[in-house]
Design a protein that fits this description.
This protein is an alpha/beta fold. The strands form 2 sheets. The protein has a 7-stranded mixed β-sheet with strand order 5-4-3-6-7-9-8, sandwiched between helices. A two-stranded antiparallel sheet has the order 1-2. 39% of the residues lie in helices and 19% in strands.
Length: 285
């Protein structure tokens, strides 16, 4: 009968041999998940014998990870803005870099604002904003073309205990009214670059959330153009962008009449967020 230490060492080695990044970290995370233990317990009991059922649960998780199924999809959870979100293979896994978008959006919040999250996926962006700023009584709407993604967002809405409308919509198609703040993390990977992505992404995350068309800008063009009808004068548009898309987004937003346009960098110094304000008055009015 195996000990905890035996099990962990075998799992770690199997992941290393399968070229899984951060094999040791993932082997430990899967042990926490499969056996429902913490590190303090492990170090006190690493030589304890384990039951076959526990062993089989852990080994099943290791097999999944060896197939490059993302850790978060195996465990069903991902952390974002300090909140635990439910995720599956129908939504993009929340990334740390996307927190930059939330932190920028927070700067423009005012009490009673109507906030729209396009391509909401797991709902992590919208629901984090609502949970962090309950005192502002924000009115949140999350839109996504995928009904399966909206089911995930609904679970997270319940978990965080916030109120938000979730609408099945191809961008603005099924939305009503106007908004004071629009946030979005749309698909922005150029179609020809998807094959170069890590297996965890290209094989296990939804293509609907990745493919941004031939040059990666398909959804940005539509969003920037159509916000003219859905964003209130003086309202803000904040979008996550690809690492080399900053100047293209600046030009798109300038051409659409946005002011105060800024391109924010992530911790690696790469383009990550484009933000701009719709003027209080427009020549197009």
């Amino acid at each position: 009968m195996s000990t905890l230490r035996d099990l962990f060492c075998r799992g770690k080695e199997e992941l290393r041999q399968a070229n899984v990044p951060d094999a040791e970290v993932d082997a430990w995370a899967l042990m926490e998940f499969a056996l429902d233990i913490e590190k303090s317990y492990y170090y006190l009991h690493e030589n304890d014998k384990i039951e076959n059922e526990q062993k089989e649960r852990y080994e099943a998780c290791i097999r999944q990870r060896k197939r490059r199924i993302p850790l978060q999809q195996i465990t069903g959870k991902a952390w974002f803005m300090g909140y635990e979100f439910y995720v599956n293979d129908q939504v993009l896994i929340p990334r740390f870099d996307t927190e930059i978008l939330v932190e920028e959006a927070e700067k423009h919040l005012q009490p009673g604002m109507r906030v729209l999250d396009l391509c909401t996926g797991s709902g992590c962006i919208l629901l984090s904003l609502l949970a962090e700023h309950e005192e502002l009584s924000l009115k949140g709407v999350g839109a996504d073309i995928s009904p399966e993604a909206l089911k995930v967002a609904a679970v997270n809405r319940e978990r965080l205990g916030v109120k938000a409308d979730l609408v099945e919509s191809d961008l603005f198609d099924n939305l009503e009214g106007t908004f004071d703040l629009i946030v979005s993390n749309p698909p922005y990977i150029a179609a020809g670059e998807i094959a170069q992505l890590m297996p965890e992404v290209k094989e296990h995350e939804p293509m609907l959330a990745l493919d941004g068309g031939e040059d990666g800008l398909y959804f940005y063009r539509k969003i920037v153009k159509e916000t003219d009808h859905y964003l209130n004068p003086g309202g803000w548009l904040c979008m996550e962008i690809g690492w080399d898309q900053g100047e293209k987004l600046r030009q798109l937003m300038q051409d659409a009449g946005y002011t105060g346009i800024r391109i924010l960098k992530d911790l690696a110094g790469l383009d990550r967020v484009a933000v701009g304000q719709k003027p209080l008055s427009s020549e197009n009015e």
